[in-house]
Amino acid sequence: MADGIDQQIDSASPTPTPDRSCRMERFHCKPPPMKAAIRIHQISKRFKSLQALDQVSLDILPGEFFALLGPNGAGKTTLITILAGLTRADSGVVEVMGHNVVSDYRNARRKLGIVPQELVFDPFFTVRETLRIQSGYFGLKHNDDWIDEVMTNLDLMNKADVNMRALSGGMKRRVLVAQALVHKPPVIVLDEPTAGVDVELRQSLWEFIKQLNQAGHTIVLTTHYLEEAETLCNRIAMLKQGRVIALDDKANFLNRQATPQLRIKLMPDMLPTSLHPMLISQEDGYHRLRLPALDQLEAVLQTLREAGVSVKDLALEQPNLEDVFVQFMHQP
Ligand SMILES: Nc1ncnc2c1ncn2[C@@H]1O[C@H](COP(=O)(O)OP(=O)(O)OP(=O)(O)O)[C@@H](O)[C@H]1O
After folding, report:
1. CA distance 107 to 271
2. pLDDT value at residue 119
3. ipTM field
4. 195 vs 69: which has the higher pLDDT
5. CA-70 nearest atom, ligand 1
6. Buried-most residue among 23, 104, 209, 308 (CB within 10 A)?
7. Average pLDDT over residues 15-43
8. Is the CB of 81 under 6 A from ligand 1?
9. Would you say the CB of residue 124 lies under 6 angstroms from ligand 1?
10. In a domain, 87, yes or no
11. How close is the Cα of 268 to the center of ligand 1, in Å?
């Protein structure tokens, strides 16, 4: 990775610098508030009768790996297009590294790299030409060293001189990621970057994005692969019908759901009535039960024995982000 990356991150340092003037009054002063890498303040957007975003507010701090989760149509892409300055919000303010995306568009755009969900590309250029043209949009004339480094990290070197239209879908997506990085933006937003992408690319893509995050870049990710968000992100916002319904550290989301779940296959396939209140779901011949506490396991087994039901298979599972997500989405 280029040394240059860190120099580009300007005020994106994850650690705030303490104010020296505070030393004399150390019992009274607080560290200065960290300036948000992305500030989204009371954003609303309506498409005719549809309220796509409704008073959305989020502050994403420098150096965070942030997940924006939500079902189809929740408003994630709309929020990202507003952030990119491609759609105007009806009301509210969005800033990237302190630059307003409407009134200070050029500076806001320079601080931002966006990997769009849709595969948009110019079929007449090669991969290298595409990346050079993208560099030109940001006034970068001698960017070949960095372009080579990005292509190497995304395993694109052997496709550098191949025409864009001749690439597979997964390869095109790699180019979209490379395009978002040509100007070394301190803030990188990835809208469903792994949709339709094979396991190998996913892993190499995430390795590269993790390195960028470790170098101080702020990463915002939307994905329907919740295990990706669980592995990578440190803070999560859940969007539903244009509203933020939950916002917290990943660890807090998971701890809220600390009780284990029991996945069990029965013979005959009949759950005794007294265990129905614990039932979460039933699929592929398995019952999934929520145990109030681990020591309830023996009581459940006892109930099954008394009902003449035998256990064919059993596993204890810790709840994951998907369980938490489903629970939030089903809340009225
Ligand atoms: N240009 C548009 N005109 C009319 N409606 C739109 C437009 N763009 C988005 N919408 C609607 O706004 C809502 C939010 O869409 P958006 O694409 O932001 O959701 P999303 O959370 O990104 O969904 P997905 O996970 O499917 O990508 C949807 O109901 C969508 O149909």
Report:
1. 61
2. 83
3. 0.97
4. 69
5. 21
6. 209
7. 62
8. no
9. no
10. yes
11. 46
| Among candidate residues 240, 255, 270, the one where a domain is terminated | 255
Euclidean distance between CA atoms 254 and 67, whole angstroms? 14
pLDDT of residue 33: 64
User: CATH number of the domain that 62 lies in?
Assistant: 3.40.50.300
How far apart are the C-alpha atoms of 299 and 314, rounded to whole Å? Answer: 15
**Dihedral of CA 106/110/114/116: which sign?**
positive
Residue 266 belongs to a domain with what CATH number? 3.30.70
Mean local confidence (pLDDT), 64-91: 95
Position in ligand 1 atom list of the atom nearest CA 81: 18
Q: Whose CA is nearest to atom 29 of ligand 1?
A: 73
124 with 242, same domain? Answer: yes
User: With contact defined as beta carbons under 8 Å apart, do 268 and 257 qualify?
Assistant: no
Indicate if the pLDDT at residue 12 is higher than 60.
no
What is the atom index within ligand 1 of the atom nearest the CA of 75? 18
Confidence category of residue 258, pLDDT binned at 50, 70, 90: low
Q: Are residues 222 and 309 in the same domain?
A: no
**Ligand 1 centroid distance, CA of 102 (Å):** 21
Residues 235 and 268 in one domain: no
Q: Which two tokens stand for residue 21?
A: 């003037």
What are 222-243's pLDDT values in tens digits? 998 899 999 999 999 999 999 9
Per the prediction, the chain carries an average pLDDT of 87
Three-state SS string over 8-76 comes to HCHHHCCCCCCCHHHHHHCCCCCCCCCCCCEEEEEEEEEECCEEEEEEEEEEECCCCEEEEECCCCCCH
Q: Which two tokens stand for residue 270?
A: 């009949």
Distance CA 41, CA 95 (A): 9
Shared domain for 209 and 272, answered yes or no, is no
pLDDT at residue 257, rounded to an integer = 67
- This prediction has a pTM of 0.80
Burial label, 49 (beta-carbon count in 10 A; 0-12, 13-18, 19+): exposed
| Domain span including residue 109 | 38-255
Same domain, 243 and 215: yes
Q: Are residues 42 and 153 in the same domain?
A: yes
> Could you give the number of structural domains in the chain?
2
